[in-house]
From TrEMBL:
Subcellular localization, as worded in the UniProt entry: Cell membrane
Taxonomic source organism: Promicromonospora aerolata
Protein name stated in the entry: histidine kinase
Regions that span the bilayer: 7-26, 62-82
Reaction equations catalysed: ATP + protein L-histidine = ADP + protein N-phospho-L-histidine
Classification via Pfam families: HAMP (PF00672), HATPase_c (PF02518), HisKA (PF00512)
Stretches assigned to the HAMP domain: 84-137
Keywords: ATP-binding, Kinase, Membrane, Nucleotide-binding, Phosphoprotein, Transferase, Transmembrane, Transmembrane helix, Two-component regulatory system
EC number: 2.7.13.3
InterPro entries: HAMP_dom, HATPase_C_sf, HATPase_dom, His_kinase_dom, HisK_dim/P_dom, HisK_dim/P_sf, Sig_transdc_His_kin-like_C
Catalytic EC class: transferase
Primary location recorded for the protein, binned into one broad class: membrane
Coiled coil: none
Matches recorded under Gene3D superfamilies: 1.10.287.130, 6.10.340.10, Histidine kinase-like ATPase, C-terminal domain (3.30.565.10)
Length: 373
């Protein structure tokens, strides 16, 4: 019940108590007083009216006094009980809010049970504490991950610089290459972190225009084809006729598909195939990047979109990956109002990433013989 309802009920109970006391007192006192006065009137001829009036006044005074007294006592009692519970609930809430603001996110407010508004307030404060706790844990983990990622290249660079300084190493093309590789790894890490932060906070402006999925896919495939040819992996593209256009930022969606297709080639041995496709699927356009490569075991699947998550840390870091690519993919797809998911039957059985983006309502559909809509 809401708090206002409870207050109305307690007021009604106070009134009821007054009425009940009035009735009881009137029943108990009234007849006796009347009988007494009538008896006295029978001994004093001519005084009936005066006695009746006196009986009425004293009976109603007694009734009124008792009823008012009972109402005052019960309303004081009800006021005291209600205000005590309200005050203790507010004190409790204030204490928890102060603890949360001091950085303790594991504290919770007990629902006071004095009206649904108070329970809702307790629920909202608890949800806020939980959310802040989760953000705080994420922030800590992110800092630890960044520090960890920075350590290796920075340690390598400074070890080489020390060796050059001591004359143990000379500045040969090989040394320069190592230093450059580590420096570019740091630059890429900074760029990727910046991109994922901007996309996740919604601060990345999207230049949304109607985009033809066919054009998007071909552009992505063309830019990565040399890498595929070098790795001996076949890249197949296919857009189902009738696939509608989407409202998207061309560069950002290019980045999404690029990251997925880049991962696919890295995880597919020579002789394998990567299929990059788009098709209509209800109200969305479904993009898929399916490879016949390493696959991902079920236990890792729920985490691959997390920042810095790599299935095989040594191997994945070995090729320069820091595990941010898929976090960028997810943030960008969400910013476009879409969803991204991953499927894999298991190790060495291939992986499929699926990106669903809302189809542009009543936009023209792509048809193999009518390009350029
Ligand atoms: N197609 C795939 N097949 C098998 N495993 C994959 C595939 N795509 C991603 N993964 C796994 O998911 C992890 C996370 O991918 P993500 O793109 O976020 O990071 P990365 O490629 O290692 O580094 P980055 O993209 O930052 O260079 C990878 O390290 C890899 O273990
Ligand atoms: Mg990647």
């Amino acid at each position: 019940m809401r708090f206002g309802g409870r207050l109305v009920v307690s007021m009604a109970l106070v009134m009821l108590c007054g009425v009940l006391v009035a009735w009881l007192v009137a029943q108990a006192v009234g007849p006796g007083v009347f009988r007494d006065h009538m008896e006295r009137a029978s001994h004093e001829p001519g005084s009936v009216a005066a006695h009746a009036l006196e009986a009425f006044v004293s009976a109603s005074t007694a009734t009124l006094a008792a009823a008012l007294g009972a109402a005052v006592v019960t309303s004081l009692l009800a006021g005291f009980l209600v205000s005590r519970r309200v005050a203790s609930s507010l004190r409790n809430t204030a204490t928890v809010a102060a603890q949360v603001s001091a950085g303790r996110f594991d504290v919770r407010v007990m629902p006071p049970g004095i009206g649904s508004e108070f329970d809702e307030l307790a629920g909202a404060i608890n949800a806020m504490a939980q959310r802040l706790g989760r953000n705080d844990a994420m922030r800590r983990r992110l800092m630890a991950d960044i520090a960890h990622e920075l350590r290796t290249p920075v340690a390598t660079i400074s070890a080489y610089l020390d060796a050059l300084d001591d004359g143990v190493e000379v500045l040969s093309p090989a040394t320069t290459e190592v230093l450059q590789a580590q420096a570019s790894r740091l630059t890429r890490l900074a760029d990727d972190l910046g991109a994922v932060m901007r996309a996740e906070s919604g601060a990345m402006p999207l230049d949304l225009v109607p985009v033809d999925p066919h054009e998007l896919i071909e552009l992505c495939a063309e830019s990565l084809r040399p890498r595929y040819e070098r790795s001996g992996v076949a890249l197949v593209t296919e857009v189902r006729p009738g696939t509608p256009r989407i409202l998207a930022d061309r560069d950002r969606m290019g980045q999404v598909l690029g990251n997925l297709v880049d991962n696919a080639v890295r995880h597919t041995p020579a002789g394998g195939t990567v299929r990059l496709t788009a098709e209509p699927h209800g109200a969305v356009v479904r993009f898929a990047v399916a490879d016949t490569g390493d696959g991902i075991e079920a236990e890792h699947l729920p985490y691959v979109f997390e920042r810095f998550y790599r299935v095989d840390v040594a191997r994945d870091r070995g090729h320069g990956g820091s595990g941010i690519g898929l976090a960028i993919v997810r943030a960008l797809v969400l910013a476009h109002g879409g969803t991204v998911s991953v499927l894999s039957p298991g190790k060495s059985m291939g992986t499929t990433f699926v990106v669903d983006l809302p189809a542009r309502p009543d936009g023209p559909r792509w048809h193999p013989f009518s390009r350029g809509h």
